[in-house]
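Board notes (copied after class):
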Amino acid sequence: MGMMVVARRVEGDADEVRYEFGFEDRFDRVLLIDPSTFEARVDDGDFDSAASAITAKIVNARRSGGEFPGRMLFAG
């Protein structure tokens, strides 16, 4: 069985871009990305496969499009 992780950007400044994310629009976790290094962490400290998958999609979109996306979906 696959997983579907959805994220939406909620805050961003020069030091950090913040996304709420979770499975199928639950948005119960927070992902923080450093825009200069693309280093990512989650507020609950559990950087699991869902966090890794959605981070990779967000960072790839930023690299190819020049901006952090407002929303992102990973289905795999």
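Comment from the instructor: Strands lie at 4-12, 17-23, 29-33, 40-42, 71-75. The longest strand covers residues 4-12.
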